Amino acid sequence: MALRDLPFDLSSLNVFLAVCENGSMAAAARALSVTQPAISQTISELETRLGTRLFDRNVRPLALTATGAVLRQNATGLLAEMRHIAVGIQEMKHGRVPQLRLGVVDSLSRAILPHLSEFMYERVGRLVVHAGLTESHGTSLLTRQIDLVIGVDEMEDVAGLERWPLIEEPYLLLCPDNVAPPKTTDDMRALLLNHPFIRFSQRSRTGLEVERYLRRLRIDVPFQQEYDLPYGVFSACRAGGVAITTPLCLYEVGFRADSSMVCHPLPVGSFHRHLTLVGRRREFGRLPLDLMLHLRERLHTGMMRDLVALFPEFSDQIRILS
C-alpha cells in the first residue's frame, strides 16, 4: 500500500488522540490551539477514510466505538515511536547516537570495557554490550541484532562491512611451570599427548584456529576438555593441563608472572590472532572510527604496559594496529 492510500496520517492521529484524552472536540481544540470546526473536520475526514465511526456522539463526554478503541490503542504506540525517532534524528545531528548494540569477544572484556564506557558516555544515549563468542556476534551483526562487533573474525568474505584493526597478538603454549618448553614438533606432540590438552570451544574462532595449527603439524590429540571462556581454559590448566592460548586471554583471567603456570613460544609454525572492530558500511557516521582511535590510544598507554611486563618474551609480537 502506498503512503497516499493510507486512511490516516500522523497529524490526523494526533488530533484523534487529543479528542480521546480531552473528552470533547472543543476541549481538544483548546489543547491544540486550533478551532473546533478544524477538529471536527479532521475527525470527520478520518472516519470517512476509515469507513467507520470512531466516536459515539450520542453520549457526553464522547465515547469511543469498538473501532475507535482499537485505533487509540495502536495510534498511541505509533506516535510514541515517531517521537522517539524524531529525538534520535536530532541527537544524530549533534553527533550522538540514540542506541548502540555492541558485541565484544570475551577475551577483550577486561582490556577495553572501561575505555569503551568512557567513550560512549558522550556519544551514545543507550549502550547495550553483549559479551560472548565472535561467531554468534557475527551472525547477530548480519541480522541487525547487533550494530558493531569487536572480535576475532573479520568476516572478510562478507560484502557491505567496514573493518578497523585493533590488536595483533601471538598464540602461545600455557603449561605448568615444571614442564620444559618443546623444541620440535615431536616434543610438542609428546607434550600434548602426555598432559591433558585443554581446548577452546570449537564454536569459537580461537578454538578453530588452534585446530588448524595442530592439523598443519599433523598432531592428533584426543578431545578431553574444551571451554567457551578463557577462564575455563586457564582453570583447567592450573589443575595440570596445557593449552594453546594468547596473552589477552590470559590477561582477561588475571594471569600473573609469578603463578604456577608459564608461557612458552610454540616450537614451529607460530601464528597470530587479530582483533578487529567490524560494522555495517556507512552506518553511525564517524563513530566507529572515533571509537577505534580512542581504544587504540587507551590500550597503547595502559594495557600494553601490562602485557609487556607479563609476557616479555612475546612483547615484540603484541601490537596495537593502525
Automatic annotation (TrEMBL):
SUPFAM superfamilies from the UniProt entry: Periplasmic binding protein-like II, Winged helix' DNA-binding domain
Superkingdom, taxonomy of origin: Bacteria
GO molecular function, one term: DNA-binding transcription factor activity
Gene3D superfamilies attached to this UniProt entry: Periplasmic binding protein-like II, Winged helix-like DNA-binding domain superfamily/Winged helix DNA-binding domain
Keyword Chloroplast: no
Domain HTH lysR-type: residue ranges: 8-65
PROSITE patterns, per the entry: HTH_LYSR
Similarity-based family: Belongs to the LysR transcriptional regulatory family.
The protein, known as: LysR family transcriptional regulator
Organism annotation: Acetobacter aceti
